Amino acid sequence: MIFVCVGSRKYPFDRLFVKLDKMCETGQIKEEIFAQIGTSTYKPKRFKYKEFLSPEEFQEKINEADIVITHGASGSIMKALNAGKKVIAVTRLKKYGEHINDHQIQNNEAFASNKYVLAVYEMEELDKAIEKIYNGTADLKPWENKDPMAIINLIDKFIQDNWEK
Length: 165
Fold this sequence. Notes:
The chain is an alpha/beta fold. It has one domain: Rossmann fold (3-Layer(aba) Sandwich), CATH 3.40.50.2000. The chain has helices at about 15-25, 55-65, 75-80, 105-115, 125-135, 150-160; strands at about 1-5, 35, 50, 65-70, 85-90, 120. Strands 3-2-1-4-5-6 form a six-stranded parallel β-sheet, with helices on both faces. Helix 4 (about 105-115) packs across helix 6. The longest helix has 13 residues, at about 150-160. The chain is globular and about 40 Å long. The chain starts with a strand and ends with a helix.
């Protein structure tokens, strides 16, 4: 099962759900999908969804999933990584009205540069990310959360190393 989560902020993430519906329609995704769609106005036609989940429901869906497709929020990413899931982090972008700024780019780049997630910035990349997981070429490393500050340090180091670029 694929679990898709996009948080509870007031910004819709319609382009993700439109893309997933198309991928189901064309047979690129054959397995069951369940999505937490938040405030998105597009309602998926080819998979089950709910606008919001309780913390318990959210954790249950993560536990059931083989793959988690999440927006680029570090909390959602960490919950999936801590559960040992394969994660595709799809970036909400300001230019599409999906967030107030593009901070999710840095989050996703930090996680992806360390091979913890596959990062997707434009929807055309989602096909390739899912295919890499399906065919075993994703080259993802398991997350080991030994330090409670690890995520903050990971993102901070990435930003510091790339600030001048």
